[in-house]
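User: Hi! I'm working on a homework problem where we have to compare a predicted structure to a textbook description. Could you give me the structure for the chain below?
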Amino acid sequence: MNPIYQGKIHMGQLIEGAKAARGLTVIIDVFRAVSVECYLISMGVRSIRPVGALGEALSLAGKVPDPVLFGERGGRRVEGFDFGNSPAQIIPDVVRGKNIIHTTSAGTQGVVNATGADEILLGSLVGARAIAEYILHKNPPEVSLIAMGDAGISPTEEDDLCAAYIRSLLLGEEMDMKTAIVHLKDHGGRKFFKPDLQDIFPEEDFWMSTQVDRFDFVLKVETDPLGYIVRTLPSSD
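Assistant: Happy to help. Predicted structure tokens:
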């Protein structure tokens, strides 16, 4: 990427940051909502519908064909849902061709609160470069990078890192991501390496969520008569 973004970049955090977001807005949730959705797309799901409330997710399941429910609160799978929020625990044969309904503590909360955004993208380390390329191609007058953090109420290192990385790509600056990921493993990612938490935060989730720039597509949130739906775009669209 040679061009440098000339517009205004707003760096925001948490639900309050999402509420204040303007322009093209990137809602960032590395561990693990957006990473999960990127892997779901790569596995050939038919659609992904992010929702905020659990009741809304259950209601929506009765309105779409072949629904598969992904739900997490406090990191744990919601009782009665098919999956939690772990990319490592997704079963490709179960989700392929299905309509995913996805509710989490942070990422989907950012989507529903970014009411002032002109356009909403979903941000993660696995798709960061594609997002930057998309922004450079569209060249909007302002961009908001919103790190959603833990449950949208406290900052996390991984989301702040992703926001900083996307900003660096837009401005043509270098970041040592290999060193940053090593640091993240021993700090913001420590829960994935605790033996007693492997059923909730499997170690593989850390490595899958930190495969920087693995995917070359962009996840854009749009609406239809049923609510929010994620559309997949090439980075140059």
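For your comparison, note the following. The chain has one domain: 8-231. The mean pLDDT is 95. Good luck with the assignment!
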